[in-house]
Amino acid sequence: MRILIIEDDLEAAAAMRHGLTEAGYECTHAPDGEAGLAEAGKGKFDVMIVDRMMPKKNGVEVVETLRREGDQTPVLFLSALGEINDRVTGLRAGADDYLVKPYAFAELIARVDALSRRRETGAVATTLKVGELEMNLINRTVHRQGKEIDLQPREFQLLEFMMRHAGQSVTRTMLLEKVWEYHFDPQTNVIDVHISRLRSKIDKGFDRAMLQTVRGAGYRLDP
Amino acid sequence: MRLPRLIRSTPFRLTLLFLALFAAAASAFLGYIYIATAGEVNRRADAEITREMESLEAAYRVGGVNALNQTIVERATGERPFLYLLLDKDGKRISGSIEESPIDDFTGPGPTWETFKLTETDIDGAEVKRAARGVQERLSGGEALFVGADVQESEGYVMKIVRALRGAGALVIILGLAGGVLISRNVSRSMQGLVDVVNAVRAGDLHARARVRGTRDEYDELAEGLNDMLDRIERLMGGLRHAGDAIAHDLRSPLTRLRARMEVALIDAENGKGDPVAALETALADADGVLKTFNAVLAIARLQAAGEAPNQAVFDASELASDMAELYEASCEDKGLDFKAEIVPALGVRGNREFIAQALANILDNAIKYTPEGGAVMLRARRTSSSELEFSVTDTGPGVPEADRARVVQRFVRLENSRSEPGAGLGLSLVQAVAASHGGRLELAEGPGEYGGFGPGLRVALVLPRVE
Fold first, then answer.
1. Nearest by Cα to B235 from B295, B304, B310
2. CB contact under 8 A, A185 and B358
């Protein structure tokens, strides 16, 4: 998996590169918008991480240029803390996901993972299968070891998201954003409670827990 | 001191300017009236004198000086109101109704006009001077003939007009000046109040306020505007100072703790003791806490500075409330709280969905945090008037004493009994900032009273303008 980091803060870029390399990614770094576009033109990348504030061409311009030129590589947009407009601007420009700096590394890796595998699961499927779990997207049923599991609509959506990202860590913020479609900062463990409800439904009475808690990151659905 | 200030004042100067213009216009107008009336009187007298002169000249042409003399004698004793004087070649009086010509240096031959005073003796024997006017011509035989008329009566009429005009002019100027002074003093007094406030604020007294007299005029409007502006500035300044102090206070302790932990971890690691991984994890959690506080403070400050929330759109507030109910219902159940939601469908609101969601989340977080197990939390969304809707969260926790309700909305304010709970005291401040940036408001009230041994509970309402 190849990642292009377009970021003018060299120290931040180095840290990002270090973390992503540890996670198994191959990274290329460009220190400004123009260099970033040049790199993007040269090679094939699975994900691009684009900072909002940069010299020469800013993040929004970079994403807009990429999209105009038909480059559909998933983009994770980064912006500084407290810039309340940036998320909308970034997504409107064509970015696929958004992260506020400073971020937890687990959050960055989880989002890059999600973006890099998005294209693999892009095919239209009517059923999802992860280990013993089977989900029918047409009649909205879930079975584990052939036994039907009764889920509320939101629990179904939550499980669907976990199944589509099976084996990957997903963070609480990602779940709130992708399943509930809200971008705020819950002060309490609202997501944890939903996960523990889902867990009691899909894991209770089975010999092995599929829905794992990843310390410091979030959750992972193991096959 | 009083007068120079008055003269310096803008209204007084404007009055003077206006008065000067008015006086100029009045003089032109009065001048025209004078010319039209007085001129007309003289013209009419002149025309009659000229006609008389012509008729006498006709008599002279026909019968010479003797015929003229006879005519003059006849007419002078007749009823005609003219004055006559016939002089011979050397200027000696031949006949006439007056003794000598009022024109001293007559050379002729053309008509020479003169306005003069006629001295007469009235019935009481007193000498009176009457206004008169006449013309003198030299006749073809060398004699000089003077014809005049007493214009005292018409002159008096003209004088009356002139006096009236003069009086009117003076009155205009006096009344104008008096009015100007009155208006300027009134205006100056009104302005002075505002100027005093501005000077006081400039000198550093942010509490100074202009007096609103309740007359609903432009000065009141200006005073109200000034006061509103000062209120806002004072609030912002206060908020800024408070936030600065509070950030320093609230960030100092976690930062100090963070630093100490890292230092201890470093010493331990050097000595091969302790668990550096665990120490780093705690340090990270501390840093996240600091960032979270910082983020909330920043969001509040940005919203307050912007005045209006960014990226507003019309959306379904009922749907938002249902989502929040669904999201928080699980947390309530987890804590053993009874949760209910009453949501009126299809409530339209215009705003930033994320900020309003964040505000509702903060209110619900608080309710769950402070309501003891066995209590209840209720979320409502409904129309409260034709123009407003209300999200309200009622809990059965200890509530907030009325005296503290205004205070808990402020940044970093945490009541004594809440210090044991996690949080930075920014939740309601952010809700307040969100409400204000949407033209809405945050209302705190008492909850349902005692419930399961606790109470009286708290009702927090976020009121927002509604759209169809």
1. B304
2. yes
